[in-house]
């Protein structure tokens, strides 16, 4: 018996695990899934193969550091001149040391307010004021009066434009401006100006046009690459009063003579040639002055800016005495009809020959209403119409076909 006891004790462990496992299986199938062990669940939240993941992370970070050390850093685009100008105006406003772009913009805005205020006194009605902006910088202010007491249509507009010149435009501008780099594919540019056209109701009162502008191309760092001024003013009567033409030209000549005695005769001739309906062999009106592309070849920037300022400031003294003399004169239906025909000639020039109209309409994001503001509200075209010989209408046509020296 003593020899059997060890055997019995040794045999129990052999069968006990199997029996226990059998009992556990039966309990599982009978009672459903056993709740998970919270210790096992917590262990599964840990990192799988932590040493492997650390090794991979070290290799990845090392690759990033190597890439940053060996590759060229990505260059940011420099700010545009529109962004530079906006920042300068916010930080310090416009001073005598500001870029010419900002000084010209401030000057024409100031003159627009003065001119509009004076014209409102003449007409007795207020201008409608529309302020507009461009997505890439700049914008403008359009002041328009329609169906007034004196003016059938009047517009005094300013525009400030920022943009990029494509290669074909650069090549074309280099003809007159050698400072422009011939090798660049595009150039930032800035253009600003004040444009005005007044169409009175009374056919005895003349239409008048004015435009003074500044253009600049910029280098990549925002500095000026090339610049120039342009502009002028001209008188377009339907009925010719010699004293009006003489006063208009005399006032402009005085403004020119302050800066250069050669300016008036030179720019008066240029005006007669430019404001011309060549297809009809007649000028648009009795002239004034016109100039373009005045840059460093002519005079320095400050002197040229001062000249443009004098010309623009001379407008009110040149025109207000004329409109005040003629706005209330009596007229007939036939004389009104002649005014409509002459306005038709005005439209022809603006749509066929005027470079400013063409430039504006071909500019991206052009504001058509402002560009075509210069057109009269009404005009007429009579087939094969000719004025009576010896009439006042014929005398005007004779002068338009052979421009006179008024002063």
From TrEMBL:
Molecular functions per Gene Ontology: coproporphyrinogen oxidase activity
Enzyme class: oxidoreductase
Keywords for this protein: Oxidoreductase, Porphyrin biosynthesis
Pfam families: Coprogen_oxidas
Top-level lineage group: Eukaryota
Signal sequence residues: none
UniProt-listed Enzyme Commission number(s): 1.3.3.3
GO cellular component, one term: cytoplasm
Record-linked Gene3D superfamilies: Coproporphyrinogen III oxidase, aerobic (3.40.1500.10)
GO biological-process terms attached to the record: protoporphyrinogen IX biosynthetic process
Pathway info: Porphyrin-containing compound metabolism; protoporphyrin-IX biosynthesis; protoporphyrinogen-IX from coproporphyrinogen-III (O2 route): step 1/1
Family to which this protein belongs: Belongs to the aerobic coproporphyrinogen-III oxidase family.
Assembly and oligomerization: Homodimer.
Name listed for the protein in its UniProt record: coproporphyrinogen oxidase
